[in-house]
Each structure stands twice: as structure tokens, then as C-alpha cells.
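Lab notebook, bench 4. Still working through the backlog of constructs that have no structural model yet. Next entry is a single chain of 322 residues. Request: give me the C-alpha cells for it.
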Amino acid sequence: MPSWLYDDAYFEGQRVKKKYLEAYDGACLEDAIRGTPVRSDIGECYLIESSTDFSLSKIDRDNARNALMSNLRLLRGIGAGTEQKLRKAGYSDIESLLGHRRWHDEAKRFLSIVDSGDACRIQQELWHWLPKSHPLNLNITAFTEVERLVALDIETMGLFSRPIILFGAAFTSGDKIVTRQYLARDIDEEAAAISLFTALVENNPLVSYNGRAFDVPYINQRRWYYDLGGDIENVHFDMLPFARRFMKSKTPDARLTTIEKYLFGQERLDDVPGALVPEFYEEYLRTHNPGPLVPIVEHNRNDLVSLVRLFSKFCEDCNGGH
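Model written out:
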């Protein structure tokens, strides 16, 4: 049993594994999980697609710009005391400081960054002055093409330098959340899955849950392992810091399953803890019974859908930072 897993979660995981082994005894993968073999230049993996009805909320760009302009402390050198003095003198926003002898140049510099519309530049600028959990950071989403936004989540065989066996991506199309999951039916298919997955997320804004610290660095490490190119450095909105900030007085922890239950009333059945994914996958490899893969794929899909819903919810609540 993994040392970081509670006894109850471990024994529940064993129950789930046994249930699905029995349910799919003698079945083939295609019977257990509907999907399609797909090929890249370097090999083949298994693609699983699904969709869920959903309408994405987004922040209006003008509202986002106004929210950023209203915070004088986004300028280098302005703290709480200086801000108070400037407001008393009639300077209500950063644009008004263009008429101030001392702060003109800094206001002009900041305005050029915001008006460039470059979400990466704006994000890096805000991170100089604000914690990553600050609601103003959500306004950066207004400077992206939200329709191109891709939520990502991976399932791995361990915490460090072990294969990734499932790459999950979700995006909105019309009034639906579309999920695409690239499954390595064997460890040898990991490289093909990475190749196809990164082609999907390339140059798109990303949404994750602890993905800045875990998923993206992990994917980058595996890309280097297979000599598949440089790092993924897309503009990235990690929902975990926001969840910790917004939900800390409402939920006992910031796990995605806890947050989704509180916000959306969603409670998962037969969920596999992430710590048991390696054990489930190894059971599949050993027995050729696809049953243990079913809850892994469902767990990943649920994470992706909840992630898009959470992003939309936080953007809706933010409403331009006001």
C-alpha cells in the first residue's frame, strides 16, 4: 500500500479493482472502453473521446482591462501608502497616472503590456506583484481565445520519471465540453501518446489543477526522454491556487473531488485514487483484463470535466475582478 494513502482509500481501491476485474473478465479493450487506435509518426495509441453539455462562462475583455487599470499597486514602486495618497490626489486608475510627472513612465510601460494583448506578458507582469491565487489573475483569461483553452490532466506510473499512461485533454466546442484521452495500451505506446497529445495542446492556453507544479513539468520531462522537442510553455491557468484561496473556509481540503462535490453536488462512484493508478495499470498489463483501465479512464475524464466547470465558475464569480 502506498505510504501516503489512507487505509480506507486503499481498501476502497481494492474493492473497485476487484469489481472491474470480475466485470470485464474475458473482455477485450474495445469492449470495455469505446475508442479508436490512432497513429502518429512514431507509433500508435488508443484515443477515447466523449462530450458533455456545457456553456462556458468567460470574463469580458473590457471589464478585465478596467479591473487591472484600477489597481495602482500593479505599478513598480507603488505600495499601499503611495496608492492612498495618489487616490486622494484624484488619480483613480493607472491610465490617469499618465498625467503624473513621477509615474508617467511606469504607467505607460504597464499600459503597453496590457494593450499588447499578450496573455503571457500580462501574466508574468502580474505575477511580479500578486500571488498566483489573486483574483485579478483570472482577468488574464480575457486576453486569450477562451474557445481554444485546453484543460489537461495526466495519469502516471509514479511521481517522478515514470511513464505516463494516460494523457487527458478537454476543450469546449459550442455548448459542449469535449474530452480526448490518449491511452498507452502498453508502455511502448507512451511516446506516440505524448506526440499526439502535445500536438493538440500546442500553442493553446492551458488550464490545470496543480499542473504548473506537476503535470506540465512531468510531460516536459517525458518529452525530453523521448527526444520529442522542447518544453511546453503555454500561458497556463492553474486552478489549485484559486481553489485554495476561494474555498479555504468552505471545504476541509482543496482536492478536486472535494471542490466538485461542494460546488456542483457531484459525488464519484468507484473512483480510483491517483496513488493506485500504477497498481491498476500493472494489473491490466499482467492479466490482459481491461477492467482496471475503466476506472482510470473515468477518473481522468471526471477530472477534466470538473476542471473546465471549475474554471468557468471562478471566471463567472470573478466577473472582471469587481
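Notes after review: Residues 293-318 form the longest helix (26 residues). The chain has two domains: 7-57+146-321, 61-143. Flag for follow-up if needed.
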